[in-house]
């Protein structure tokens, strides 16, 4: 079997490592005073086009951003309509967040022992105050009528609500230049509005938002065009938020913020630099230790470890894996574990060397060590599985950082099996044979 | 080497380390972070320098009591408070900007409501139970005996206890907190510890098939054969973790320390807790059969 000789395999591994090496390079880097740019994947073959940019995706704790958890109060909603209400809340919040305009927001729901949560992640946001206000408001718009005279005046809600709107926009008041919100009604809403103004000519028509009076314009004449203007005492920000809320629709139930984690971009960048430095120092120590402890074999393991590093990084970029701070720790830990399969084999090799010819001893060591490598790593994968919670079991953690850690740990184990068994083994086969000649 | 002869010494070492930890747990308890007990944790970077006392008094003037305040490098403070509202947050930032006379950058802001903590504890318990149960079944099946599985799980329990006790002591003297990352570390240690134990077990299983003999002798042989591997493997992981502790920055320091304690304990517990337990169990079983 010429084709699958160790040498051919090594050439294949080498090519794989070079491709992975290129993918794992940063976008722009300097080497020997020259500036390089890493190419991205851009394949055009007839109708099929594959375009991928190989940038590491960083989690909120590294890139900066806000993680917000809202709790929704469904106590007033009957049991059978709850599931609908939950997805309603999610959709409304998602629309609001998308209109707010941050890059790649994520909105998820989670429930635990009857509590419904909505988890909103906003990458790159500096001050989440506006976002929290935008998301957290129920934004129930209501038109009311005034009944009674003088002291006995009271507000009576009408049938016209935020649900009758087709769109809302920020414009500016023509006289004062103040920001106002221009609203358009749906066909039916327009009819309701017309009859409402008809009934109330010369009287105020209060507009309420979440039970609070926003403005109470006096109706001068019947309005038939199906549009109106809400002119509260808004700042530009408030007007923008209100327009977004009206466009996205009102929340079916109130929500409140129960958890917030915001990380500034500068702190995230610092964490990245520090952990990369720690990783490099640790890696050099591990490599030095392996060479000191196992000489030539250690050198082979070191090559295997470096290949492990570039393969893992490349896979993070291809999948892609969102890298978090615990994720980096998981990666570094898996580097430590990746060496383990090598150590197991080498220690075995030392024992077997005395009993049989070197090449045989090598194969026997690989075979015998495999049992313990397999059993031990399956136990670790089991824990990684519980931590990663891939099926979203609600009784387990669903937190991003923990998942990031579990995912990088699991990937690390998988790749370490490949580099420990396939890469080191073939390198050693060639190495040991050369020695014999 | 006759490792099993000194079983009592290993048990004594484990008992005293865990005992010290339990004393720490009883006298000081665990230092739970905001993830568990709720509250706010702020990290502010000041453009102009300001004293710790001033930061503290200005915030407390706003009616918000401070649990702890820590001067971290680079003109930054880490402040722990009760859970605060968005208005209080704005207030605190602006009063600090006013007092220091320069910009205040919010490096990190965490605010966790009281309902999150109990949930986290429950979920952690479930995660631990599922992972431990899964490992117990896997090891018992793989080595065709419940005593292998139970001894391995008891050894990991030993490591979790060492970690908890260690953090009670570190929490009291150095402010180490139990947070989300600690939970992750504990689960990782669980798997690392079993990983090491399985390697020793594997050697016992292999010699049993080829040579047979009493478990006592097989265990001695297996420990001798795996000792160097076990130490060398731990060294490489320890190198990585020490680099993380020293250079990795504040946010990851205690996480790395937790993993470090677990690695050391996990390396110890495989030959000196799991295997002695297994051998002792086997001996008791045989005695019972005879009588």
What does this entry show, briefly?
Chain A is α+β, with helices and mostly antiparallel strands.
Features:
heterodimer; A: 437 residues; alpha+beta; Multidrug efflux transporter AcrB transmembrane fold; Gyrase A, domain 2; 2 domains; four-stranded antiparallel β-sheet; B: 291 residues; Alpha-Beta Plaits; 9 helices; 73% helix; elongated
What does this structure look like?
The complex is a heterodimer of chains A (437) and B (291). Chain A is α+β, with helices and mostly antiparallel strands. Chain A has helices at residues 6-24, 60-63, 79-100, 129-136, 187-199, 236-248, 265-318, 325-353, 358-388, 400-436; strands at 28-31, 34-37, 41-45, 48-52, 57-58, 65-72, 106-112, 115-123, 141-147, 154-161, 165-172, 179-185, 207-209, 212-215, 227-230, 255-263, 322-323. Chain A has two domains: 6-54 and 264-436, Multidrug efflux transporter AcrB transmembrane domain (Multidrug efflux transporter AcrB transmembrane fold); 65-263, Gyrase A, domain 2 (2-Layer Sandwich). Chain A contains ten helices and 17 strands. Chain B has 291 residues and is of the alpha+beta class. Chain B contains nine helices and four strands. Chain B has helices at 7-28, 34-37, 52-61, 86-100, 116-142, 146-174, 180-210, 215-247, 250-290; strands at 39-46, 66-72, 76-81, 104-112. In chain B, strands 2-3-1-4 form a four-stranded antiparallel sheet. In chain B, a hairpin with a 3-residue loop joins strand 2 and strand 3 (76-81). In chain B, helix 6 (146-174) runs antiparallel to helix 9. Strand 16 of chain A pairs antiparallel with strand 4 of chain B.
